[in-house]
User: Fold these one by one.
Assistant:
Number 1:
Amino acid sequence: MRYYIISGEPSGDLHGSNLIKSIKKLDSQATIRAWGGDLMQTAGADLAKHYRDLAFMGIWQVLKNLGTIRKNFRFCEADIQEFAPDTLILIDYSGFNLRIARWAKEQEYKVIYYISPQVWATREKRVRKIKQYVDKMFVILPFEKEFYAKHEYPVEYVGHPLLDVVQQFQPNPDFRTSQKLGNQPIIALLPGSRKQEILAMLNVMLSLVPLFPDYQFVIAGAPSMPPSFYQQFTQQYSQVTLVENQTYDLLSNSHAALVTSGTATLETALFKVPQVVCYKASALLYHVVKRIIKIPYIAIVNLIVGKEIVKELIQHELNTEQLQTELSKLLEGTARIELLTEYDHLHKLLGSSGASDRAAKGILDFLENKKELPEGNS
């Protein structure tokens, strides 16, 4: 069969690549075209557009790039028509993908969503669009099935694909040597994958370097950003190291971490690294988001567990003093032990590994069942 997959972020590229591998195990004749990144391309997709060309964060960035965004929609629609897939598979990236879902449904393509947009966090009314334009939804968070059931929309829970990714990861035993890292315990800095996130977060993270002389600070470089971009932040700190494309090796060797809110908070938790979650946006974007957000926490770790197990420092709270206080608590003692225990509970809530395989099987089962239905009963 022919599959057209759209993801627009590094996490979508990761999960999309594993989904592609699982699809190919079940469908040896699979032909796949995709919006994604290097991982999806390596897994066997013909790449139509790289996610690094799609990363517009914040209201002003979106407004400045409206022309490019419109061109991307037009290109996507034309590319789908030329490829003529049996199904369109959308991975998160809601602002773009829900609009494409509407168009695709009008063109009578089968539309599958893998990894739900976070409609439970903001703009819950978007569920109506999902019910209207998406034929089948596969979700990865345990509370999402109940959320959609409330809206009378049945979805399939397959578990979280990060369980597989972390479980299958083989640490590099020479990581410290290859990166010329010393023996001091490591504090990992994960400032995000987008330029705007890094600009907002990294300086305040690095302000802790002089305050923790017994630790070494290591930045996880975003795959979409060149090393030269980080020099503006690190040039005054001789004891700070940047590593590229080795975030999991970094987490495997870290004592604690400062992490920008996003998928990385869950990855950090699964590697059992105590963390402080950071978030800062422009004043305008923050006030807009604050008015529409419907959830008590921003970290997915806290949402899954149902309480704040990792400290969230948001907007004005994200400053050197508070960051120093919260990080100090995690370096040793009771707070560290309690958080590691909560991480074990989190892992149990996420269930078993095999999410990508279950999603791939669900997709193929759905498509085969659709083929068997009489015309007009889809």
Note: DSSP finds 18 helices and 13 strands in the chain.
Number 2:
Amino acid sequence: MSVRVDEYTLGVEEEYQVVDPETRELRSQGGWVIERARDEAGDGDVAAELMESQVEAVSSVCRTLAEVRAEVSRLRRVVIRAAGDKGRIVAASTHPFSHWREQVVTPKERYRVLIEAYQQLAQEQLVFGFHVHVGVKDRESAVRVINRLRVWLAPLLALSANSPFWLGEDSGYASYRTQVWGRFPVSGPPGFFESRAEHDALVEALVRTKTVEDATKIYWDARLPEKTETIEVRVADVCPTVDEAVMVAGLSRALVRSCFERDGREEPYPAARPELLRAAHWRASRYGLEGEMIDVEEERVVPAGYEIQKLLDFARPALEELGDWDEVSGIVRETLERGNGATRQRAVYRRTGRLEDVVDMLVAETARGT
């Protein structure tokens, strides 16, 4: 059942904020930025999102982590250049103080339907996502891979957490995006499925009962996309630095590969209860790397460093086979030492007392390495 290394392709989607250079408020200039950026986007893509203050950058298909780094750097550079004097670009999953009531919804039918269906819940979705696609062509195996992957999603969230502020206040969460996004009826940790047929039957039931308009609006933290032969890992916050984006992409691919190969050997794994998984995601969202995490396999709370080391140990054989161990483990160690994006945002605010300075820090980190 083994798959050649070059079949574990990678694709990355990042959603950026467009902020005013003077006020640091979100600015509804996404359409203008996208129009200018698309000429330079090349094989990747720059697209609209729900709010006009958002810009989504989609990488081309990558086969190595070096290609991912080059694509993320290039797309950030393209969008930053396109914004020019009209805006600054921020990679973070919430804006520190802009209000959702002041945002302009992008005039597209998809978003009109979303607002009509979910009303204020959708209007409040002033959050920004980071998604990693890992190529797995066998859809039956992909379902079993997600079953195994579920227990590793919370540590990924903790490493990437980068949304502590909401509407001008410290939310008390490292990833408040997780709480805002998690209100949708089909978000959060994926369920356990015995087969592809069981997975597809549930998706069909969700569409038939008008819970979602179509399968593309199922927003689980790891899912099977409708249009690509990939597993999409959606649990992470947008990372402020290119290094951290590369880290999450590399870990996502290594976890998928590790789960796939263990599935081929029929190794046992915890069929975790959904209640425990949701609790693990909540704790990762609440504390990030600065508190205890839930080890779903051991069913106990453990120090964050312990759980992140366990994640690395699980993924290490795949990371080494892919040639990614030194780079990814090094960035993980650095993140544990200096803190994730949420920790660094709070450090700036404690030092200056100005959320505008937090935005400036994020602008600088977003551009670093591009």
Note: Residues 5-367 form a domain with the Creatine Kinase; Chain A, domain 2 fold (CATH 3.30.590.20).
Number 3:
Amino acid sequence: MTENDKSTPSPGRRKFLGTTAAAVAVAGFSVVSGVRLVSLAEAKPADQPVSNKKRWGMLVDTSKCSSGCDACVTACNTENGLYTTDHPKTDAQWIRKIDLRNKATGWTVSLPMLCQHCANPPCVDVCPTGASFKRPDGIVLVDKHICIGCRYCMMACPYKARSFIHEALDQQVEYAPRGKGTVESCTFCVQRVDEVGKRRDPACVEACNAEGHKAMYFGDLKDANSEISQQLKKYQSKEIRADLNLDTGVRYRGI
């Protein structure tokens, strides 16, 4: 399992960033006053560095996922400040519900689609500045300080899991800063994962459990004793677009 951690731009990428800084300013990219786009690579305290001893992942049991339920989507929007008073609607989709249908048989299945947190993420490979990166623990993120809004990562993602912020935003949550002219996507609610003393599940998983569906599992894929590892060992699961060999951190059962 390769790490492909690109949290630090190469000299070539740093040069590219320097030559594009002026263009970014002219394009009108901005952030909300008073909000610092903190690099999520530094979300954990200095005395608890992110380690490759863990790999965070998610399992979705589609047999328990109802097409009429969007609790996971609502929870994500609320947790990460995607809906605000001034902007009740947004084009951003960190997680969305989709229905798949077999044209031959008519069989349908509903499932949540989000960043798959690939071990070999194509979004990271095409990013010219290193803004898209993968932490050693497998969580794929975007550093808003470095993102220039080129959207190459959006084109490279086979899951259409990234969104672009077209307008200035306000009323943001401090732990999930957003900025006009940057790309964003699911972070596995990294602020919860990195919470000192009591790691919590992502908001989507918590909401799914609260609804009684229990269709989503989250945990350490490298821990053989974790619930998600036990589920993956006991029942068959699949990657979406397994043919791409991305080694996704999100797996699905029943597709």
Note: Confidence is low (pLDDT under 50) at residues 1-43.
Number 4:
Amino acid sequence: MPLPARRPGNPLLNDRTFASLPRPGIGAGNMSIKGTVDKSFLLLVVLMVSALWPWSQMASGNAQAVSGIMMVGLLGGFVLALVISFKANLAPYLSVPYAALEGLALGGISAVLEQRYRGIAIEAVGLTFGVLAALLIAYRAHLIRVTDRFRAVVIGATFGIMLLYLASMILGWFHVSLQALYAPTPLGIGISLVIVAVAALNVVLAFDLIERGVAGGAPKYMEWYCAFSLMVTLVWLYIELLRLLSLTRRS
């Protein structure tokens, strides 16, 4: 079963994210690395706790309820993501509800795939955290350097994938399927590997831009916005890892 197409990459974090922000007033405080990490951790906990509900419903045999919960999470999360994207100052108020809705969506998707492929969810979670840790270590050790060319390539690849997903969705309305995206063939698995790699590189861009936001003295509420933006990227990475693992199980 193909996973639902999600907005790829992290267009929320780009070179203009901090450019037009007002400087914080006296005593208002600035964005910090610690504050962003703390808020990212909180959102992650909220997401994981929320994901337990659809997971428990599937375990009790209530598959119909899981479908409804998953759709609420997908649609609600998408709406809140759009609002936060255009109104960064609302991130302190909407990021936690967004994380809860994403938890419903990911919990439902994971539970459905777990019924088909035992152990796939824990494998995807482990790989996501493993990739995150490896990238963070490599970034802090300056093994990965974010240059202008690096940014251009990753952003270009991300928007290319976005267009691919958009084309797949539009063609689906006309009952035309891009089977290469979902088929358990060497080509399908290869495409999935490329998308996973691009998603992982977007995590590196998130690290870099958060660091630059701190250096530029962004206002305090941007900690919430950046934590939310990082979560968008990690959600995409997790979903693509689920897709890749499901393809390898079917091949």
Note: The chain has a mean pLDDT of 85.
